[in-house]
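Objective 1b: paired records.
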Amino acid sequence: MKITRAQLNHFRSYENCVLAPCEGVNVLLGDNGQGKTNVLEALYLCCTGRSHRTRQDRELISWGADFASVKAEAERRDGSHQVEIILPAMGRRKLKIAGQEASKSGELMGHITGVLFSPEDLRTVKDGPAERRRFVDMALSQIKPAYYYCLQRYARALKQRNEVLKLASVQPGVLATLDSWDGQLAQAGAELMAMRREYIARLSKLAGETHREISDGKEQLEIRYVPSVTAGDDIPSNLEALFAARENDLRRMTTSVGAHRDDVLLTIAGRDVRAYGSQGQQRTAALAMRLSELDVMREAMGEWPMLMLDDVMSELDPSRRRQLVGHLRGIQTFITCTDPDDLAGAGVGKVWRVSGGALTEE
């Protein structure tokens, strides 16, 4: 997949910006705070419908502007794809696919696909389960739009079940609806768990191979799915777990078991990287996960997604940098950096100087 054109209007620091990238390595070069990351954020928004930095659309709109918009055009094996996202200061966002307004956010998935690697990826390894679930959810939503819709169904059922749990003490009659919400939660949860298990098994194999290369064969990384419901990825197991936790959930007024409590465990030589890994090991694990995400997406879609690297070259030692550069061949890549020397061996195609929210091709 190749981005052929991208346009940003009133997005973050850009009043108007048009980018016509090459098929290889595209570099956004400039000092910190000039708007390099904003371009990658806009491209990632076209892939997933979400920013990797904020959940508030208002923060993406330039100061004083009434709206922001991002449009991206791409060539894929099946032809041309165009995605446009319009973010008004007031009201709901609009999504357009090939110029036609989309009624559901899930329609965005799969048109433009990409993997973003940034210094914040270390949080996937170091922080709590929510960060690792988010990693899996974003990757799977791009590969399987059905996963994205299932995730939405699960979120709606979870919200309603939690509302019932909160109201039960003052309105006991609402307990009669709990079985219905349990059924919906169990069905969606079982589907999510099955897809997560399959994805993580494939990711673990590829990440293990990549990690061995990066560590010169000295270390073995394993990624393991840790579901909240351990009995199985089926509806009866989820229903049984929800029923067993009901008394406790009523007391705490929240749902304590289900796919929203899943985790992903990363180990090196059998030891939890989050708890026992060094800074270098954690960084290497994060890099291996992202590179393997590229491979899994290529296998699923039959073509490479684009790769976005946000100021990561300077964060990597020479060995990891060489491994990363080795993965760029044949992949359209967007790299932000402050020092062009960090890109040695990357085979740069186009370079833009970024200053004050403006791009100048060099």
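Objective 1b, second protein:
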Amino acid sequence: MTRAVVIGLAETGRAVTRRLRAEGVEVLILEDAPPGGERYRERVEEARAAGATLVEQPSERGTLDAIDSADLVVPSPLVRVEHPALAAARARGVPVRSEIDLAAERTRVPIVAVTGTNGKTTVTTLAAEMLAASGRRAVAAGNVGRPLIDAVADDVDVLVAEVSSFQLACSETFHPQVAVVLAIAPDHLDWHGTYEQYVAAKARITAHQTPADVLVFDADDADARGIAAASRARRAGFSRRADAVEYAREVDGELRTADGTVLAAVAAMRRAFVHDRTNALASAISALAVGATTAGIQVALAKYATLPHRVALVGEAGGVQWYDDSKATNPDATLRALESFDSVVLLAGGRNKGLDLGVLAREAARLRAVVAFGEAAPEVARAFGDLVPVLTVGSMRDAVRAAAERAQPGDAVLLSPACASFDAYANYGERGDDFAAEVRSITVDGAPCR
């Protein structure tokens, strides 16, 4: 019988254990830091009921003994590549596989895999909707919430998967028929160590593609272009430049393929900020490669609403619009959000992930004021120096009220923190919800935000 060691019992470890036990594989789970709580206890009970063995806080000797008897090691996405179990597996020649490797080995339908720094979830879900509107049964899975290895059992025509740098870092066999590389910018350097290692992890999305496969990439991004240049797959780029005739692009208010085929009119999109148009191109080109139609693409773009916490309008009053972009947890995401507005009061801060917040000053000309909050508030203030008025506050309530005092008719108030939320919130969603609640609680120019 095959023996597998699964490292970590979060949602990915749970899904891998469930699948391997169903296949008759003997599973030993190593959980270095049991989190406790009801959800963890449920995972423990499920794993044990399935016949898996769980070892919590294993000793170094126990970890090495587990690897000595293993035929396969599957780390959860946040397990570092230098973890002792992985080092021991490589030294002993025991195969290490990411969950996405296992999923790709088991599926019988094409996989469209999406990576990059920002926009992954939007492109993943939008591509799936384009396929569905074209009559192709598609499901979005992976880092969007549902493990890809669970989705391989679905009765569908295409799997569309968001894959993170954490998942890709330990991948050894992952082979999507369509890989999508969006723009790459510094992020998660506290985990990867260097930007070069971060980019190298992203590049693994195309490592096992062949000339029969397709790599869709952001032609305006140097790192994405570099990954494409080294790939064996057929390359299909997209660009914001209307004169980039070799790539899919926007021309005269239309999204077009490289050969000039009209995909959709920008005016017919439900929302068409700058990053929306870029995401639409990436989604459309990847969906076309696995059977989407231009009619289906147009239907999806006319209906698609932004996902929560991604430049989502949460209030409007007195000529001021309030946007929740709490998902912007790195400076590049904030810069991309700012591109779509002429005059902004920006709310930024939280817990910096070791990134250079100084790049935010590139868009200083668009900013009426900045409200800085959280652990990184001093860094936010230093980023702008004397370029923009910066007010530092201690809470989201104070941030919203300070923004309301400074915003003028025609402005956008944008929560786009450029930082993680973990200094004050469980996640970016909770932070965005707090912002929206505070927006609803105030009155701007005598008119309630709604």
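The radius of gyration is 23 Å. Residues 197 and 274 are 29 Å apart (CA to CA).
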